[in-house]
Amino acid sequence: MIKVGIVGGTGYTGVELLRLLAVHPDVQLTAITSRKEDGLPVADMFPSLRGRVALAFSAPEKADLSQCDVVFFATPHGVAMAQAPALLAAGVKVVDLAADFRLKDQASFEQWYKIPHTCPELLEQAVYGLAELNREAIQGASLIANPGCYPTTMQLGYYPLLKAGLIDAGALIADCKSGVSGAGRKAEIGTLFSESSDNFKAYSVAGHRHTPETAAQLQRFTEQKVDLVFTPHLVPMIRGMHSTLYARLTKEVSNEELQSLFEAQYKDAPFVDVMPFGSHPETRSTRGSNMLRMALHRPGNGNTVIVLVVQDNLVKGAAGQAVQCMNLMFGLEETTGLTQIALMP
Ligand SMILES: NC(=O)C1=CN([C@@H]2O[C@H](COP(=O)(O)OP(=O)(O)OC[C@H]3O[C@@H](n4cnc5c(N)ncnc54)[C@H](OP(=O)(O)O)[C@@H]3O)[C@@H](O)[C@H]2O)C=CC1
Ligand SMILES: CC(=O)N[C@@H](CCC(=O)OP(=O)(O)O)C(=O)O
User: Fold this and answer.
1) Total domains present in the chain
2) Range of 236's domain?
3) Is residue 342 part of a domain?
4) Rounded to the nearest whole angstrom, what is the distance from the C-alpha of residue 155 to the centroid of ligand 2?
5) Ligand 1: distance of its center to the CA of 204 in Å?
6) What is the pLDDT of residues 157-188, one digit of tens each?
7) Whole-complex ipTM
């Protein structure tokens, strides 16, 4: 059994990791931390886990994480970088759900996240945890930078078009919407019920930290300069993400060829569903599952191609993707413990 520790077990991605790992056949939950809930049985805070998780939260300084085989950090940016060096030196694998190791460039990280990077020496070693585009590297990794939720949808949607050289990489426009759980469980005015329900708005239009992450990753797949305009929106739902990705075609290509390109690209990706051309994927078709669904459109058969992408921000956008990486790192079947069907309606 793989001994698993979770730092930040009381947050939304933390409890999602618990939900998935509690029924994972190869995992033994070993330590779950919380600074505020030291000693509280996990199932007292999350009744959904009664009878499934017998552990209590422990303060991070009390938890002996070095006895684990892998530790997930479901914490704010900056926490994993403080503890990863010692864990890695003790032979423990690390999966960070935050952004500490996503950007290879230290200056860019510090500019966007506004905190100093305390272990830049690990940036090179860290492997970006998007299995569909990086499976082999993840299999050999000991430190995973789990992708951001929006970047997961943008990369998987744009990748086949970019790799095939069919679009202008300098004119990518991504219009993306997230449920409120994307902002985490911490108390904030913007996520109060009376602020975020019955309301709809864009945010961070001038620049969101997921733009450099996505552009840097996509840049690996094209010689053209990637220029991405990304606008996130907050929608009044709890879970779910919907990304509408626009691109300008630069070559003659039929709709059938576009569809075949996507189907071929993801035929061996168990968590990417390429729906029939012209479909309208719904966020609820991914709710609680690790599936990401996408569909292609081409209005008026012109030279704009649109890729619609949906996922559950807490699963494929965070905890499920992290478990997918763990499976690969430990030589398990990629889908182990991740075969839940979405909740509909
Ligand atoms: N929500 C989402 O959809 C997604 C989130 N992410 C990323 O995953 C990470 C976790 O997000 P989320 O679960 O939403 O966040 P939450 O705010 O819901 O939870 C944060 C958790 O971290 C713990 N924590 C906070 N500060 C520290 C600290 N200094 N040291 C140790 N533990 C700490 C908190 O518990 P306590 O205070 O008791 O210690 C809590 O358990 C973030 O980096 C987020 O950006 C990535 C993709 C999607
Ligand atoms: C709705 C909402 O607020 N979403 C978060 C993104 C969550 C995510 O993916 O997080 P990290 O990159 O921070 O890990 C945001 O836009 O900041």
Assistant:
1) 2
2) 149-312
3) no
4) 16
5) 20
6) 999 999 999 999 999 999 999 999 999 999 99
7) 0.98
